[in-house]
Design brief:
7 helices, 258 residues, 6-stranded mixed β-sheet, metal ion binding, double-stranded DNA 3'-5' DNA exonuclease activity, Deoxyribonuclease I, Chain A, alpha+beta, manganese
Length: 258
């Protein structure tokens, strides 16, 4: 089973790129973030014509998440992260797909830090951590994947000294990520590529992609039930170089059957 995550940075603007990648990579499940489309503007017909069932939680501006599947219709569990009934941002959706519980997330950016946006990010991170603990207690196969907006270590960021005050790299955020993983999750990409420089995001400015001045901010966390089924993980880096592509590249894992 091949599962991928991709921050598309505007699904309608990037639809040709998305469809091209889906055809080329053929993931069984694809989790998308930053749809930048209200619910009624999601390109459902095009996605289904590409061979995927889909559920999505749209929203104007910067948010929006979706789960695509070609191995059975995603059975939605929730479309909000528990813990704050007043949070209306569409940043989380969860579904059962082919025997795996998949949480697709778009964690807040948090800049400028310190400030209200940074406080919201830390609060969201804590809600995710609380929910993740409950998921682990179910002892079922779980994937938590998406754009976490955090570089966990110096290896995950080009020139880390330039990012010390950024909300994606501040000590509080890295500590929150490590606390989440310490519950018993496996950082899939790092498990299989422990010492490699691997990035998933390159800014549009200053020829970041050409210079390989990137960040690793899109992650796969696997529950213990899936850790032993992990066989491969990687980044479709070349997709970032396509014309009118997102500033993120797709990330994927492969899991063997039970």
């Amino acid at each position: 089973m091949k599962i991928a995550t991709y921050n598309v940075n505007g699904i309608n603007a990037r639809l040709p790129v998305l469809l091209r990648w889906l055809k080329e990579s053929a993931p069984d499940v694809a989790c998308l973030q930053e749809l930048k489309a209200p619910q009624e503007k999601f390109p459902e017909n095009e996605i289904r014509e590409a061979g995927y069932d889909v559920i999505w939680h749209g929203q104007k501006s910067w948010n929006g998440v979706a789960i695509l599947s070609r191995v059975g219709t995603p059975q939605e569990v929730r479309r909000t992260l528990p813990g704050d009934e007043e949070d209306v941002n569409s940043r989380y959706i969860e579904a059962n797909v082919n025997g795996v519980l998949i949480g697709c997330l778009y964690l807040p950016n948090g800049n400028p830090a310190p400030g209200p946006k940074f406080d919201y990010k830390l609060g969201w991170f804590q809600r995710l951590t609380d929910h993740a603990k409950q998921l682990l207690e179910q002892k079922v196969p779980v994937v938590l994947t998406g754009d976490y907006n955090v570089m966990p270590t110096d290896l995950d960021v080009y020139k880390p000294e330039r990012w010390v005050d950024d909300a994606l790299f501040r000590p509080e955020v890295r500590a929150a990520f490590h606390a989440l993983v310490a519950q018993g999750w496996t950082d899939a990409v790092r498990k299989l590529h422990p010492g490699e420089t691997i990035y998933t995001f390159w800014d549009y400015f200053r020829n970041a992609y050409g210079r390989d001045a990137g960040l690793r901010i899109d992650h796969f966390l696997l529950s213990p039930e899936l850790d032993k089924r992990l066989t491969a993980a990687g980044v479709d880096r070349h997709v970032r170089g396509w014309d009118k592509s997102s500033d993120h590249a797709p990330v994927w894992v492969e899991l063997k059957d039970k």
